[in-house]
Design a protein that fits this description.
Elements: H1 2-16, E1 37-44, E2 49-56, E3 62-68, H2 69-110
Antiparallel strand pairs: 1-2, 2-3
């Protein structure tokens, strides 16, 4: 019985440790494996390490990690890449929406379904 309790304590202490060593990419959730992890809070612990509280936007899993400055820079780079991808998707979707809107207005004008008076106050 004592041996089982000792094993359980050892397991719990390992689970309580920062998990960044188990997952090399901080943007990937250790729970659901989605790449939607974002920093909630972040501060420097020393000249070489930072503490980060992370939250997964997919499943809501929260964890805290201690990382080296190199790992933090890699994480920031991955976050920047994600922001660029979101911005590019927004521009593409907005352009598609504007094209669809203009096609609908053009078709309505050609069929005399609307006229300039429909756009006056």
């Amino acid at each position: 019985m004592r041996r089982n309790i000792t094993k359980l304590r050892g397991l719990l202490s390992r689970l309580a440790r920062p998990t960044h060593r188990l997952q090399s990419r901080l943007v990937v959730c250790v729970s659901c494996h989605a790449d939607f992890v974002n920093p909630v809070s972040w501060h420097e612990l020393s000249e070489t390490h930072s503490w980060i509280r992370l939250r997964c936007g997919e499943c809501g899993f929260v964890r805290e990690v201690e990382v080296t400055n190199e790992e933090a820079q890699r994480f920031e780079h991955e976050l920047d890449q994600g922001v660029k991808q979101i911005a590019a998707a927004f521009v593409r979707l907005d352009r598609e929406r504007m094209i669809a809107d203009s096609d609908a207005i053009t078709a309505a004008l050609e069929r005399d379904l609307i006229d300039p008076g429909d756009f006056c106050r």
